[in-house]
Amino acid sequence: xxxxxxxxxxxxxxxxxxxxxxxxxxxxxxxxxxxxxxxxxxxxxxxxxxxxxxxxxxxxxxxxxxxxxxxxxxxxxxxxxxxxxxxxxxxxxxxxxxxxxxxxxxxxxxxxxxxxxxxxxxxxxxxxxxxxxxxxxxxxxxxxxxxxxxxxxxxxxxxxxxxxxxxxxxxxxxxxxxxxxxxxxxxxxxxxxxxxxxxxxxxxxxxxxxxxxxxxxxxxxxxxxxxxxxxx
Length: 232
Ligand SMILES: *Cc1c(COP(=O)(O)O)cnc(C)c1O
Known about the structure:
This protein has helices at residues 3-20, 39-47, 58-67, 86-92, 102-111, 141-149, 174-190, 207-212, 222-225, and strands at residues 29-33, 52-55, 74-77, 95-99, 119-124, 154-160, 198-200, 217-220. The chain is an alpha/beta fold. Helix 4 crosses helix 5 (102-111).
């Protein structure tokens, strides 16, 4: 199967998962996670109609954004954010999913180049407790969202989660349900904040569970691009 077939297959599964959940398939966006794969693979996916791509490493994002500068690709930075890399991210990304502290959010806002639209951001929440590494605690998410919403060059779009791997006997949908409930509460509290419409949740192994619980943006890599190449 080539990349275009694999992409079509993911779209088909996305569609079916929406129908099963009683949701409209247009409610769920697909970000193709291209980390470790070459710019040419992105070009191939672009030709097959894909527009949004996810990268985890700043240097890779920069290299690929430069190689593909002529394509109107939407770049999603989905990796952990180091404070000394915010300038590059603010310049090259359209979306940032892993905002989990106010310091990083302030830098991204300050360093967003004049003339670019506000950077779309999701606040990452750690719904799995100690078992996972990044993300703010659920009980801090509302305060962080309130602060992010005040920053002039950011647009707060919603929440993001990377659940810890499910143990046997656990329902893979549980972390996504927790995120959805938290997001509904925050949306109510924020009230006036327009555009808080995104639940960034679900990857190759669990995107159907995420869609069943309300994900509006899924981040899928290996199902589209194949297994990841080791970083050189
Ligand atoms: C790598 C990665 C993905 C994609 O993972 P796959 O299992 O290859 O689909 C999604 N989100 C984040 C944050 C990632 O780091």
